[in-house]
């Protein structure tokens, strides 16, 4: 037939428009958008009636942690991610996401020096299980070896299609000094790699943590006090100055404070290529959630620990909402960072394990075992940072912002799909519904036919034993998730297969345009570097 799949009565949403039409899909690609199909075109195809509901380009979650083990864990705090590509990608599909970009991380260990070896190792982890959705990698760089960067960055770009790297201003095992940041940013710029920045001032955090500990303030809640908004405020300003100095475009990951958002806005206003990501937790959690079970012996709140922490109260959330609609935030990602509460590699439950029962464990002995046991005592300094949310990302934005009238459907699509695709070099293969694009789609329920429900973790597909959003009311949920023309999630059931997802090679960012000439004066910034 002419089409493999047709979708009728669709309210197709792009980053700019909404139009009621039908979609024809052939060989995994969008073939056509039309008013209506004739009988002939419909007969041989699978037909989905969207019943007037929103049909959007499939979610692109550009910030997902999978398969990071004890050694390459997100911050050297002893945690290991509990989701691999199997469980993580299934959870993504069930939440309307068709592409995830995950992290492959270099460590300071000499044998992890080669970025190519790191990527190969992570690629093998993905291939070991397969994936329900398409996937790519960002590379986390924690050292400034010029020879490695100069030799390997071009290979990462050309052979692997990896066009983004993440750099840290905090975490002892990952942070770079200012001159190291300049080294890596400079090489990234030469290779058209987008530099992602984790902007927290590591010295402020360490100093405050020491002071808190000296007062016995070690319970999970005090994690927030060790990272007041100024921590992100300082680090965003410093990274903006470093990037401006050498004319490098940057994206701030997981911006969680009104102060951070203001700094980004100011940089954008003077024409700097500064972009920002924010995450669901900053709109749905506050310091109050970290405090919920606050007591010296209860570690339940370790479930809520992430960095940067949620804002102190709802007034910051209001300012962040403005940033969603006015363009300060370029993308909205989950920062899905899965740790279990019931596992020694996860969130400390405060229950000291019997060391003997842990000794037989696969990779824990000696110092590692001792540090795990210390971690189990629950001082916030030792609690792995991060919370899950790849599956709840789109539904939370739908309920909290779209249905609440805070953002338009077009803005929803821009933040969750179109801009991540443009920023990370996937557009227009992904991120839009246009002839020739991959037929990656999320179809919602018609709002008036959906019965709101309260979320329970048991409904989710991640390998995590909690959700920070337990009990929260949702007014819609993805009804169909379609990956390159194949239905992988339908009305509460996973329909896809582990080999459906493919590795995606990416090109350079398509967002950096029209940077103000006045910000490139060689007497003020080092634009002469590139002459
Ligand atoms: O708390 C967080 N954000 N954990 C994930 C690791 C990271 O820094 O993105
Ligand atoms: Zn980070
Ligand atoms: Zn993260
Ligand atoms: Zn272990």
Please explain how this structure is put together.
The strands form three sheets. Strands 1, 2, 3, 4, 5, 14, 17, 18 and 19 form a nine-stranded mixed β-sheet that branches. An eight-stranded parallel β-sheet has the order 6-7-8-9-10-11-12-13. It is built from 16 helices and 19 strands. It is of the alpha/beta class. The termini are far apart. Bound molecules: N-(aminocarbonyl)-beta-alanine and zinc ion (3 copies). Residues 63, 65, 335, 337 line the site of one zinc ion. Its EC number is 3.5.2.2.
Provide a quick synopsis of the model.
The chain is of the alpha/beta class and 531 residues long. Helix content is 31%, strand content 18%. It contains 16 helices and 19 strands.
- Through-space gap between termini: 56 Å
Helix content: 25-40%
Strand proportion: 15-25%
Q: Roughly what is the average pLDDT, rounded to an integer? A: 92
Radius of gyration: 23 Å
The hetero compounds bound to this protein are: N-(aminocarbonyl)-beta-alanine, zinc ion
The class by helix and strand makeup works out as: alpha/beta
Total number of strands:
19
Total of DSSP H or I helical runs spanning 4+ residues: 16
Q: Largest sheet, if any? A: 9 strands, mixed
Form type: globular
Q: Which segments are poorly predicted (pLDDT under 50) over 5 or more consecutive residues? A: 351-365
Catalytic activity: 5,6-dihydrouracil + H2O = 3-(carbamoylamino)propanoate + H(+)
Organism: Penicillium chermesinum
Keywords: Hydrolase, Metal-binding
GO molecular function, one term: dihydropyrimidinase activity
